[in-house]
Write a structure and sequence with these properties.
The protein is an alpha+beta fold and 297 residues long. Helix content is 58%, strand content 13%.
């Protein structure tokens, strides 16, 4: 089961006896389909969503929807078709939700402040969310362009303003930020899914942090090795041309230590000196040695 399917299953499992929440959710669901005197219908890939809508419709209006399974060739999943075939029953539904021909405005009286339930309905019949292991993306397709402004305003009022794109003449409201997706899932009631996104995010952050630390340590090791090789080559050059004993007294000991211990860090070299000095002091002396080597022909 995909992550999006798990989210919708969790949302469909929310039980409430609050008629206002039920009505707001059902309103959000039917607005994503065809809703008029001649036809009330909606298509979804999720059986749970189809049954949820049919149950809400029956409890709220007394109208029993037809739910049929349309299996299509070359399609990865089934299509569930929900419809109200009887004309009188369609009229009952339209009157209950106050939907008039050319309906292109949200009815605040129907939503009655139950924004979470309404958005849950919109998502169930027109939304998807990616597996957070792969990508952060949640979107809701608004089938009726006339409702776009009202839905965006509603989401904005609860601090969940989405980004907007047009796709094949459809308005798509979407979120790419993991925090916004967590907030949206929690707002709709998919608390378990929201916690799952948080958990994946934490694991990703820890993994990325460890990778950065490892990469940094590897880069430092490479840098240390390269510096040690350059220093050892410089000392050998000096030894072959003028001899290490020709170096000033404070450089002789560190030169011999470096040749004998090419893998040692500067801090370790500093501790091995007969008169220990700081790491920066060792670095300064080795730089002087390299400068002397550079001046030799």
């Amino acid at each position: 089961m995909s992550f999006s399917s798990e989210v919708k299953k969790e949302l469909c499992s929310i039980e409430t006896s609050n008629v206002f929440q039920m009505r707001a959710q059902c309103y959000g669901m039917i607005l994503q389909g065809v809703c008029g005197p001649g036809e009330i219908s909606l298509t979804t890939e999720k059986k749970g969503t189809a049954m949820c809508l049919a149950q809400l419709m029956a409890e709220l209006t007394g109208v029993f929807c037809d739910v049929s399974n349309h299996n299509r060739k070359n399609q990865p999943s089934s299509q569930y078709y929900i419809s109200v075939p009887d004309e009188d029953q369609r009229k009952t539904v339209l009157e209950y939700f106050g939907i008039q021909p050319g309906h292109d405005r949200l009815d605040e009286k129907i939503i009655a402040g139950e924004y979470a339930s309404f958005v849950r309905g919109l998502f169930l019949t027109g939304g998807t969310v990616s597996n957070p292991e792969k990508d952060y993306h949640l979107e809701i397709i608004v089938q009726n362009p006339g409702l776009q402004a009202g839905i965006i305003s509603l989401l904005d009022s609860v601090s969940l303003r989405p980004k907007i794109i047009m796709r094949a003449s459809q308005c798509v409201l979407y979120y790419k930020d993991s925090g916004h997706i967590e907030d949206m899932l929690t707002f709709m009631g998919a608390v378990n899914a929201s916690l799952q996104v948080m958990e994946v995010k934490v694991v990703k952050d820890v993994r990325n942090r460890m990778n950065r630390i490892t990469n940094c340590e590897t880069a430092n090791i490479d840098k240390t090795v390269a510096a040690s090789v350059n220093q050892s080559n410089a000392i050998r050059k000096i030894d072959s041309r003028i001899g290490i004993d020709s170096l000033p007294e404070d450089l002789r000991e560190i030169a011999r230590l470096r040749l004998e211990n090419p893998e040692m860090s500067l801090s370790a070299l500093a501790r091995e000196l007969s008169r220990p000095i700081s790491r920066s002091g060792v670095n300064h002396r080795l730089k002087r040695i390299c400068s002397i080597a550079d001046e030799l022909i």
